[in-house]
Design brief:
The chain is α/β, with parallel strands linked by helices. It has one domain: EAL domain (TIM Barrel). It has 12 helices and 9 strands. Strands 1-2-4-5-6-7-8-9 form an 8-stranded mixed β-barrel, surrounded by 6 helices. Strand 8, helix 11 and strand 9 form a beta-alpha-beta unit. The mean pLDDT is about 95. Bound molecules: guanosine-5'-monophosphate (2 copies), manganese (II) ion and sodium ion. One guanosine-5'-monophosphate binds next to strand 6. It comes from Rhizobium lusitanum.
Protein backbone atom coordinates (compact mmCIF):
# COMPACT_ATOMS: atom_id res chain seq x y z
CA UNK A 1 0.00 0.00 0.00
CA UNK A 2 0.92 3.63 -0.52
CA UNK A 3 1.73 4.45 3.08
CA UNK A 4 4.07 1.48 3.36
CA UNK A 5 5.83 2.37 0.10
CA UNK A 6 6.23 5.96 1.23
CA UNK A 7 7.58 4.82 4.59
CA UNK A 8 10.09 2.52 2.91
CA UNK A 9 11.29 5.45 0.82
CA UNK A 10 11.34 7.73 3.86
CA UNK A 11 13.72 5.35 5.62
CA UNK A 12 15.97 5.00 2.58
CA UNK A 13 16.14 8.72 1.93
CA UNK A 14 16.39 9.66 5.60
CA UNK A 15 13.24 11.73 5.29
CA UNK A 16 12.50 10.74 8.87
CA UNK A 17 13.77 13.10 11.52
CA UNK A 18 14.23 12.85 15.26
CA UNK A 19 12.85 15.28 17.82
CA UNK A 20 14.26 15.46 21.35
CA UNK A 21 12.25 16.00 24.53
CA UNK A 22 14.01 17.20 27.70
CA UNK A 23 14.32 14.95 30.73
CA UNK A 24 14.86 17.09 33.81
CA UNK A 25 16.21 16.52 37.29
CA UNK A 26 13.21 16.59 39.63
CA UNK A 27 14.92 18.83 42.23
CA UNK A 28 16.74 21.37 40.07
CA UNK A 29 14.59 21.11 36.90
CA UNK A 30 17.86 21.19 34.93
CA UNK A 31 17.91 19.15 31.74
CA UNK A 32 19.94 16.00 32.32
CA UNK A 33 18.88 14.04 29.26
CA UNK A 34 16.63 13.80 26.23
CA UNK A 35 14.23 11.25 24.78
CA UNK A 36 14.52 10.73 21.02
CA UNK A 37 11.15 10.63 19.24
CA UNK A 38 10.88 9.87 15.54
CA UNK A 39 9.05 12.33 13.25
CA UNK A 40 7.83 11.98 9.70
CA UNK A 41 6.68 14.84 7.52
CA UNK A 42 5.17 12.83 4.68
CA UNK A 43 5.40 14.77 1.41
CA UNK A 44 1.98 15.86 0.26
CA UNK A 45 0.35 14.78 3.53
CA UNK A 46 2.04 16.66 6.33
CA UNK A 47 3.21 15.27 9.67
CA UNK A 48 2.10 11.73 10.58
CA UNK A 49 2.21 10.53 14.19
CA UNK A 50 4.53 7.64 15.06
CA UNK A 51 1.44 6.04 16.59
CA UNK A 52 0.19 5.70 13.00
CA UNK A 53 3.37 4.61 11.22
CA UNK A 54 5.29 2.58 13.83
CA UNK A 55 2.66 -0.22 13.68
CA UNK A 56 3.01 -0.24 9.88
CA UNK A 57 6.78 -0.44 10.20
CA UNK A 58 6.28 -3.36 12.60
CA UNK A 59 4.06 -5.39 10.27
CA UNK A 60 5.99 -4.64 7.08
CA UNK A 61 9.44 -5.57 8.34
CA UNK A 62 10.67 -1.96 8.23
CA UNK A 63 10.97 -1.52 11.98
CA UNK A 64 14.59 -2.66 12.24
CA UNK A 65 15.79 -0.19 9.62
CA UNK A 66 13.68 2.57 11.17
CA UNK A 67 14.87 1.80 14.69
CA UNK A 68 18.50 1.66 13.63
CA UNK A 69 18.17 5.01 11.88
CA UNK A 70 16.71 6.66 15.00
CA UNK A 71 19.35 5.10 17.29
CA UNK A 72 22.17 6.20 14.99
CA UNK A 73 20.87 9.76 14.69
CA UNK A 74 20.26 10.04 18.44
CA UNK A 75 23.73 8.75 19.36
CA UNK A 76 25.35 11.12 16.84
CA UNK A 77 23.32 14.06 18.16
CA UNK A 78 24.24 13.19 21.74
CA UNK A 79 27.92 13.64 20.88
CA UNK A 80 27.22 17.41 20.90
CA UNK A 81 25.76 17.17 24.41
CA UNK A 82 28.41 15.39 26.50
CA UNK A 83 26.53 15.84 29.77
CA UNK A 84 23.17 14.50 28.61
CA UNK A 85 21.75 10.99 28.63
CA UNK A 86 19.88 9.95 25.50
CA UNK A 87 16.84 7.66 25.64
CA UNK A 88 15.65 5.79 22.56
CA UNK A 89 12.43 3.77 22.19
CA UNK A 90 12.76 0.16 21.10
CA UNK A 91 9.92 -1.73 19.40
CA UNK A 92 9.12 -5.35 20.15
CA UNK A 93 10.08 -6.18 16.55
CA UNK A 94 13.61 -4.92 17.18
CA UNK A 95 13.91 -6.35 20.63
CA UNK A 96 12.75 -9.79 19.46
CA UNK A 97 15.71 -10.11 17.07
CA UNK A 98 18.57 -12.00 18.78
CA UNK A 99 21.00 -9.82 16.77
CA UNK A 100 19.60 -6.59 18.22
CA UNK A 101 22.41 -6.23 20.77
CA UNK A 102 24.92 -6.58 17.91
CA UNK A 103 23.27 -3.67 16.09
CA UNK A 104 23.40 -1.60 19.23
CA UNK A 105 27.09 -2.43 19.70
CA UNK A 106 27.90 -1.37 16.15
CA UNK A 107 26.12 1.97 16.60
CA UNK A 108 28.04 2.58 19.84
CA UNK A 109 31.32 1.83 18.05
CA UNK A 110 30.44 3.86 14.99
CA UNK A 111 29.38 6.97 16.94
CA UNK A 112 31.84 6.65 19.81
CA UNK A 113 29.18 7.48 22.40
CA UNK A 114 29.70 6.19 25.94
CA UNK A 115 27.37 3.22 26.41
CA UNK A 116 26.20 4.33 29.86
CA UNK A 117 24.78 7.54 28.39
CA UNK A 118 22.35 5.51 26.27
CA UNK A 119 19.01 4.27 27.66
CA UNK A 120 16.82 1.91 25.64
CA UNK A 121 13.12 2.17 26.52
CA UNK A 122 11.06 -0.97 26.29
CA UNK A 123 7.28 -1.10 26.71
CA UNK A 124 5.71 -3.85 28.70
CA UNK A 125 3.58 -5.39 25.96
CA UNK A 126 6.26 -7.71 24.63
CA UNK A 127 7.52 -8.84 28.02
CA UNK A 128 4.30 -10.70 28.74
CA UNK A 129 4.48 -12.60 25.46
CA UNK A 130 7.98 -13.81 26.07
CA UNK A 131 9.48 -13.28 29.52
CA UNK A 132 12.44 -15.64 29.10
CA UNK A 133 13.62 -14.08 25.85
CA UNK A 134 13.08 -10.67 27.32
CA UNK A 135 15.40 -11.51 30.17
CA UNK A 136 18.10 -12.73 27.79
CA UNK A 137 17.81 -9.67 25.55
CA UNK A 138 18.04 -7.32 28.51
CA UNK A 139 21.11 -9.13 29.81
CA UNK A 140 22.85 -8.87 26.45
CA UNK A 141 22.12 -5.16 26.24
CA UNK A 142 23.27 -4.51 29.80
CA UNK A 143 26.49 -6.39 29.07
CA UNK A 144 27.22 -3.66 26.49
CA UNK A 145 26.90 -1.07 29.24
CA UNK A 146 23.71 0.58 28.00
CA UNK A 147 20.81 1.21 30.38
CA UNK A 148 17.40 -0.36 29.97
CA UNK A 149 14.19 1.36 31.08
CA UNK A 150 10.67 0.00 31.43
CA UNK A 151 8.49 2.50 29.54
CA UNK A 152 4.77 3.27 29.94
CA UNK A 153 4.57 1.68 33.39
CA UNK A 154 1.03 1.81 34.71
CA UNK A 155 -0.57 2.07 31.29
CA UNK A 156 -2.13 -1.33 31.08
CA UNK A 157 -0.85 -4.72 32.05
CA UNK A 158 1.98 -3.56 34.30
CA UNK A 159 3.13 -6.22 36.65
CA UNK A 160 5.18 -5.30 39.68
CA UNK A 161 6.77 -8.71 39.16
CA UNK A 162 8.70 -7.22 36.22
CA UNK A 163 10.53 -4.93 38.57
CA UNK A 164 11.93 -7.91 40.42
CA UNK A 165 12.54 -10.29 37.50
CA UNK A 166 14.29 -8.04 35.01
CA UNK A 167 17.22 -5.79 35.75
CA UNK A 168 15.62 -2.52 34.70
CA UNK A 169 17.78 0.52 35.35
CA UNK A 170 14.80 2.87 35.43
CA UNK A 171 11.03 2.87 35.18
CA UNK A 172 8.98 5.51 33.43
CA UNK A 173 5.49 6.05 34.78
CA UNK A 174 2.92 6.52 32.05
CA UNK A 175 1.13 9.79 31.46
CA UNK A 176 -2.28 8.10 31.86
CA UNK A 177 -1.49 7.87 35.59
CA UNK A 178 0.49 11.07 36.19
CA UNK A 179 -2.09 13.27 34.45
CA UNK A 180 -4.58 12.54 37.25
CA UNK A 181 -2.19 13.02 40.17
CA UNK A 182 -3.90 16.17 41.45
CA UNK A 183 -7.53 15.23 40.81
CA UNK A 184 -7.84 11.52 41.51
CA UNK A 185 -7.09 10.05 44.94
CA UNK A 186 -6.71 6.55 43.55
CA UNK A 187 -4.21 7.66 40.90
CA UNK A 188 -2.31 9.54 43.61
CA UNK A 189 -2.15 6.51 45.93
CA UNK A 190 -1.05 4.26 43.06
CA UNK A 191 1.67 6.72 42.12
CA UNK A 192 2.92 6.99 45.70
CA UNK A 193 2.99 3.23 46.14
CA UNK A 194 4.65 2.59 42.77
CA UNK A 195 7.40 5.12 43.35
CA UNK A 196 7.97 3.87 46.90
CA UNK A 197 8.27 0.28 45.69
CA UNK A 198 10.69 1.19 42.89
CA UNK A 199 12.81 3.23 45.28
CA UNK A 200 12.94 0.43 47.82
CA UNK A 201 14.30 -1.74 44.98
CA UNK A 202 16.81 1.03 44.13
CA UNK A 203 15.24 1.65 40.72
CA UNK A 204 15.06 5.34 39.78
CA UNK A 205 11.73 6.63 38.48
CA UNK A 206 10.81 9.11 35.73
CA UNK A 207 7.32 10.62 35.68
CA UNK A 208 6.09 11.29 32.14
CA UNK A 209 3.48 13.68 30.82
CA UNK A 210 3.95 16.47 33.35
CA UNK A 211 2.06 19.51 32.09
CA UNK A 212 1.97 21.77 35.16
CA UNK A 213 4.35 22.85 37.90
CA UNK A 214 1.97 21.47 40.55
CA UNK A 215 1.97 18.00 38.99
CA UNK A 216 5.77 18.05 38.87
CA UNK A 217 6.00 19.09 42.51
CA UNK A 218 3.65 16.32 43.59
CA UNK A 219 5.63 13.65 41.74
CA UNK A 220 8.92 14.93 43.07
CA UNK A 221 7.36 14.75 46.54
CA UNK A 222 6.58 11.07 46.01
CA UNK A 223 10.23 10.41 45.16
CA UNK A 224 10.56 10.62 41.38
CA UNK A 225 14.10 11.73 40.53
CA UNK A 226 13.35 12.71 36.93
CA UNK A 227 10.44 14.48 35.20
CA UNK A 228 9.35 14.78 31.58
CA UNK A 229 6.46 16.55 29.91
CA UNK A 230 5.28 19.63 28.08
CA UNK A 231 5.79 21.77 31.19
CA UNK A 232 9.57 21.22 30.93
CA UNK A 233 9.72 21.09 27.15
CA UNK A 234 7.98 19.59 24.15
CA UNK A 235 9.84 17.36 21.71
CA UNK A 236 12.01 19.78 19.68
CA UNK A 237 14.48 19.77 16.80
CA UNK A 238 18.13 19.00 17.61
CA UNK A 239 19.42 22.63 17.48
CA UNK A 240 16.89 23.72 20.12
CA UNK A 241 18.44 21.36 22.66
CA UNK A 242 21.83 23.00 22.12
CA UNK A 243 20.31 26.46 22.62
CA UNK A 244 18.65 25.36 25.80
CA UNK A 245 21.90 23.89 27.14
CA UNK A 246 23.67 27.17 26.41
CA UNK A 247 21.13 29.05 28.54
CA UNK A 248 21.29 26.48 31.31
CA UNK A 249 25.08 26.64 31.70
O1 LIG B 1 6.32 11.44 20.06
P1 LIG B 1 4.91 10.93 20.19
O2 LIG B 1 4.13 11.26 21.40
O3 LIG B 1 4.11 11.31 19.01
O4 LIG B 1 5.05 9.32 20.14
C1 LIG B 1 3.95 8.50 20.04
C2 LIG B 1 4.38 7.06 20.32
O5 LIG B 1 5.38 6.63 19.39
C3 LIG B 1 4.97 6.86 21.71
O6 LIG B 1 4.45 5.65 22.24
C4 LIG B 1 6.44 6.69 21.45
O7 LIG B 1 7.04 5.82 22.39
C5 LIG B 1 6.46 6.07 20.07
N1 LIG B 1 7.72 6.40 19.39
C6 LIG B 1 8.22 7.63 19.11
N2 LIG B 1 9.42 7.52 18.50
C7 LIG B 1 9.70 6.20 18.41
C8 LIG B 1 10.81 5.46 17.88
O8 LIG B 1 11.82 5.98 17.41
N3 LIG B 1 10.72 4.10 17.95
C9 LIG B 1 9.63 3.47 18.48
N4 LIG B 1 9.64 2.13 18.50
N5 LIG B 1 8.58 4.13 19.01
C10 LIG B 1 8.61 5.49 18.96
O1 LIG C 1 5.30 5.97 24.87
P1 LIG C 1 6.26 7.07 25.17
O2 LIG C 1 6.36 7.35 26.62
O3 LIG C 1 7.59 6.91 24.54
O4 LIG C 1 5.57 8.34 24.52
C1 LIG C 1 6.14 9.57 24.51
C2 LIG C 1 5.09 10.46 23.86
O5 LIG C 1 4.42 11.27 24.83
C3 LIG C 1 5.70 11.39 22.85
O6 LIG C 1 4.99 11.25 21.68
C4 LIG C 1 5.49 12.77 23.38
O7 LIG C 1 5.20 13.67 22.34
C5 LIG C 1 4.30 12.58 24.32
N1 LIG C 1 4.35 13.52 25.45
C6 LIG C 1 5.44 13.88 26.13
N2 LIG C 1 5.15 14.76 27.13
C7 LIG C 1 3.81 14.96 27.05
C8 LIG C 1 2.92 15.78 27.81
O8 LIG C 1 3.28 16.47 28.76
N3 LIG C 1 1.61 15.74 27.45
C9 LIG C 1 1.16 14.98 26.40
N4 LIG C 1 -0.13 15.03 26.10
N5 LIG C 1 1.98 14.19 25.67
C10 LIG C 1 3.30 14.17 25.98
MN1 LIG D 1 9.31 6.38 25.67
NA1 LIG E 1 5.12 6.38 28.12
Amino acid sequence: NALELDLRRAIETEELTVAYQPLVDASSCEMTGVEALVRWNRPGHGPISPEAFIPIAETSGLIEALGLLVLRKACKAAQQWPDLRVAVNVSPGQFRNPAFADYVRSVLNETGIEAERVTLEITEGYIIQNPERTRQSIERLKALGVKVALDDFGSGFSSIGYLRQFGFDRIKIDRSLTMDVLEDNRAREMLKATVALARSLDIPVTAEGIETEEQGRALQGFGCDELQGYFYGKPMPEPEIGKRLAVQL
